[in-house]
Design a protein that fits this description.
11 strands; signal; single chain; 5 helices; 236 residues
Length: 236
């Protein structure tokens, strides 16, 4: 009988410990109404929704449902959002469907899920990286590889005017993408070739070099970079 009681006490203690760990590790999603009240965004310029301009300044082109994490680590879900790739600002919809722009420096990470296509597309945005060029700590990048070493994509769109048929002037948003690597607190714009990767992953250079040679990677494509970073992040 004493052995059964002792077993039950130990088992209950194990369950309580495991439950506490699960609760501690779980993300608590706060109501969207709290986000919409606290964020205090500003109305955007009307220029962003002009129907006569081809293309879109936004990523994605339509509103996407998002999970948002603020700088203070509060997390919210079910927010309609999109990234303005002209000025790198975050637009969102209020419960009354009014479009607002979030203040700089308030949002840390965003997971946007675009469901307008045949299958959902995820966009993982993150800020808080060191300054580089004209990009600041408030700049949002699309995170393509996560881990100790990260691959980041910065999309910039500009409004281009050109002469169309019969001399008419048309306007269209054109896109340009730059890629960056972040590791050990340093961010650098991607340079093609394995020498660049070996430099930024220098703490495990020999193993990375061996992997690149074994896989016969030229490291001149983003797909190759993803393979190398995923391998690096999996090293002990």
């Amino acid at each position: 009988m004493k052995q059964k009681i002792l077993f039950l006490l130990v088992f209950c203690g194990f369950v309580q410990t495991a439950s506490a760990q699960i609760i501690k590790q779980s993300t608590i999603y706060l109501p969207a109404t709290v986000f919409l009240t606290d964020i205090q965004g500003q109305r955007p310029s009307e220029e962003w929704n002009r129907v006569e301009v081809k293309g879109s300044p936004f990523l994605p082109g339509e509103w996407a449902k998002a999970v948002v994490t603020l700088k203070d680590n509060r997390t919210f879900s079910g927010i309609s959002m999109r990234l303005n790739c002209v000025n790198n600002s975050i637009h969102y919809l209020t419960s009354q469907k009014n479009e607002l722009v979030a203040p700089d420096g308030m949002i840390k990470e965003i997971l946007m899920i675009d469901s307008t296509g045949a299958s959902p597309t995820e966009y993982r945005l993150a800020s808080g990286f060191p300054e580089t060029g004209k990009n600041t700590a408030a700049t949002f990048y699309e995170r393509l590889v996560n881990g100790k070493a990260q691959l980041l994509k910065y999309t910039k769109r500009k409004l281009k005017e050109y002469k169309a048929y019969a001399g008419a002037t048309e306007k269209e948003y054109v896109s340009n993408e730059d890629y960056y690597l972040f590791n050990n607190g340093t961010i650098k714009e991607w340079g093609k070739g394995k020498e660049f990767l070996l430099e930024i992953l220098a703490d495990k250079k020999e193993k990375v070099q061996e992997y690149i040679d074994k896989q016969k990677l030229k490291c001149k494509s983003i797909d190759d970079v993803k393979l190398v970073l995923n391998y690096y992040n999996g090293l002990p």
